[in-house]
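Field: COMPLEX_INPUT
Field: COMPONENT_COUNT = three
Field: RESIDUE_TOTAL = 1182
Field: MODE = joint
Values follow.
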Amino acid sequence: MSVDATGAPVAGGPLPAVRGRAVRRLLRDPAGLAGLVLVAGFTAAALLAPVLAPQDPAAVDFEQVMGRPAPSAPLGTDELGRDQLSRVLYGLRSSLTVAALAVLLAVVVAVPLGLLAGYYRRWVDPVVSRLTDVLLAFPFLVLAVGLAAILGPSLLNAAIAVGVAQIPTVIRVMRAETLRLSAESFVDGAIAAGAGDAAVLARHVLPNAANALLVQVTVGIPAAVIGEAMLSFLGLGVQPPTPSLGVMLSSAQPFFAQAPWLVVFPGLVIVAVTLAFNLLGDALRDALDPKGVRR
Amino acid sequence: MSPRATRRPGRRRNRGRPRAGAPAAALAVVLAVAAATGCAPLVDPQRAADEERSVVSAPVERGGELVIGLESEPDVLDPTLASTLVGRQVFAGMCEKLYDTDADLEVVPQLAAELPEISADGLTVTIPLREGLRFNDGTEFDAAAVKTSLDRHRELPGSVRSTELEPVERVAAVDARTVRLELSRPYAPLAAVLADRAGMILSPARLDELGDDFGRDPVCVGPFRFVERVAQDRIVLERSDDYYAADEVPLDRLVYRAIPDDTIRLANLRSGQLDVMTEVGPDDVATVSNEDGLVLLNQPSVQYMGISVNIANADGVGEPARPAEGALAEDARLREAFALSLDRATVNEVVFSGLYQPACGPIPPSSAFATDSTQECPPFDPDRARELVAQTGAATPVPVELMVPNDPINLRLGQVVQAMAAETGFSVRLRPTEFASSIDAARAGDFEAYVSGWSGRPDPDGNIAQFYLTGGAQNYSGHSTEETDALIRAAAAETDPERRTERYADLVPRLRDFNSVIYLYRNRIYAAHDADVAGVTVYPDGIVRIRTAGYVAGGASRGE
Amino acid sequence: MGRYLLGRLAQSVLTLLLVSVVVFAGVRAMPGDPALLLAGDDPDPATVAGIRERLGLDQPLPVQYLLWLARMARLDFGESVRTGLPVADTIWTRIPVTLELAALSLLVAALIGIATGVVAAVRQGRPADWAANSAALLGMSIPNFWMGLMGVLLFAVVLGWLPASGFVPLTESPAGNLASMVMPATVLGTGLAAVIMRQTRSSMIEVLGADYVRTARAKGMPPHRVVLVHALRNSLITVLTILGLQLGGLISGAVVTEQIFVLPGFGRLMVESVFTRDFPVIQAAVMVTAAGYILVNLAVDLLYSVVDPRIRVRSAPSGRGAERGAR
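Field: COMPLEX_OUTPUT
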């Protein structure tokens, strides 16, 4: 939604050299470095939530309902007296889990479809294009709400709903990449050398399309984090008592004038995570662009 | 569109707030209150709950328009097909019934001239009708019209009334002012049933004209007549000249608007967009009681929430009983332990700011059939609960899956129950489910325990039969014994009030011991209106009665 | 061009048909029976069966689907299961609110996005560019529903400048209407503004480096005129591109924005009707949205070739989207 969903196709070439240069360029770009560090930090925090959380995120305390931030609970306590800091950590964990699963699903489904559509222009392409058109004609949220209603609200189903919504974009990126690469001389060469279709796609097209895919994944994760939060906010995503950043916002909304800290902190974390991935995504795109021009 | 033109100008908006800023002011006050008192509510919840008020009386002037904010969009405005509680709010303005319930939940005549006369064997019920009444299209109200409507309620495919009128076998118009119902079995709740939508009589002329589409332009006997309904926006009624007591109806016009969010509905009331609102949420009661320009109406209700435990509903409601799986289904002691683990007072405190009431049985305390025995509450006793769990020898923690509708309030309730039960050795896994899906699952028997509620009926049978009878429509737990079936039927057939009271005093404790439904709390009804309005009346049935409402003559009243 | 248009139209109809199959099947795959919900207080099996019959839900699914399609072909969307009122009326009362919201937020997005984009391009590499880029990145990263909540907290609760929520119909009070729309439109427009800013910036940089612009400059055209003339045309293209690409996002955003600010719009209608299993309303709403989406994209593609003659309309299937977004 607020995320630019289309990754710019990135020109490929002889691989190892480009990648080595790209990594160096990424690390030299302060924004990219910051993005990388932040993404690593958030991932570590999510993985280590059980170690880092000062309290059990599910431990209610009816004496401490909606407590303000204090030394004992740095981010305050929620409407059932649970420690907000611990819940934010665990919430980050489920939000990133949903995002990772969603993007994984989109990649697994969309990459083969995009490859085939781009390679077999005659038969596969029209079918896949209609499929993408149909998926695109459903606004993300309507699609997700419908899927969540059909499958029942849960963490896994939220991931499926968010993932399905990302499929058409990934298909398009992969299709465009395949189209471009199919015209390249090294593909012609491989075909001339007698390589079968499967081998051409797997060994020559896919590896060279990986850069574009990587950028798309980096852009897809923050979109999925926001998607999860929206679904959970509408009550159709991750379900209490499991905390997720969206669930925390949703259950705090009725009290947000009485206890603003319940709305402010989970939201700030969403912004920070999304920002980190967007920084990294931008830097990656620039770094992988052989022209090396910051556009 | 100029509905506002007929409303009283000027006076009603001068509460010293800019109009556009009022919703903000609503939140700002809450914030200020929270800041000033460290979150302690200004109103002692217990006191607010105890100060019952069903109406503010003051002389009113004739004329004006009242805008009423409802908690959700009403369904079809056809008494035969309508099923929502919110729809009844609109019917209250335009469709009178053979009987009505009063402030004490007693049945009183409305379109009928007197209470029904029941034959000695309980199988023939005679209802005398009032004379000289007209429907709002001018058609005469008579026994033939009553027969037409009752037959439609009983027989129209898809009628939501057919179950409650099931014991009625035949309706006959004896003469123009007398209707006789022949029953298949004695049925004491009949008068109470006829005090709800099943007792609404529809204009036969309009039925001829519209048939199944009656709900598009309904005509009944009532103080107001239907003018228009704009989908998803408003329902407009106007005072009817055909109404038998049109002189006693002060207002010209009623406009109903659905505003689903409690806070927003209140904000609209404060800013003057609404004059009356139903369902003030528990979180907002303090705000309303502290505001000078608003009057809070407060009544006990007949609604309750509880947990249905699936005991023998493995194959679905209506199918022969088959024991369900799960610890609570298998051992009655575990059910008792689970019930003893729940501190209803704390539930009320944490989830409802202490404004509702703990409930332990199907009969509301306001009912004429309420006795010490029906109202008895098992104490919160975690020690005894732990003891019972230990006795069963079950491995702890005992797993329980609790299906919860996934709205914020029910989720909060579920998490509180989860935390309490954890203290006594239960490991509750919540299964948040969309409301629509949860009914499906409950009926299919696909659940272990289910948080569900009932809008309640004034007559006790309406709160018991379908939840406990073998094959009862909402008997999600699958509870079924020949003994209780017989006792429930006998109590419903008993037409002598005193003996009936005794029967319920005997029946309810027996039902409670099964713990097939673990009652949690009973809602209270909170409604609010502008202080320059009087006569808006709320009874424990939750219906807002507008017939005598109007603008206070000569200025704002203080609601005492 | 004519053949191209015909081909695109045929594709659109096919896509709509596929959408109708997906919606119909999806709606019926949801657990939760509308008849059961309608039976409400008293879900007696006989009653439920009667309701199903009245709603036509007892017919075989293919028959239901074909009947629905046949009615829809005559623009008859049937009646709401819940209110019994015509679905078309229900939808028409809601659409203007959402259209107003979408139009206002596009306006906000275009104003902010183009202005900052042009400034950033002209001052490329300077602090202004850096600030604009950072702001865009931040704008893209803030979920709009959270921004909505924060906006309410700041402007309504703390400062008291704007109403927290609620909708004032334009017919009742134009000023009140605008006041009730300021925050929702800004919230919904922010993410878009960021996207527009980035696109404007990159295409402006490209244009400023182009030969014909350099020629114009060399001929003595004042710099601000160069920027203005080329900025305007490019901005139009950018906004069009983004409208086509982000329409889906705009609708999703509208659903959540309407939820937060309690606007009686189309997006809320869709979500509410899913919750109440109002099959005819869900089906009609999705079909209208899909048709709107397809039409807007078609129109954008056509306009695109009009606004910028250098770009020929492509005849490849799904010739919009990724390629164009990557300019």
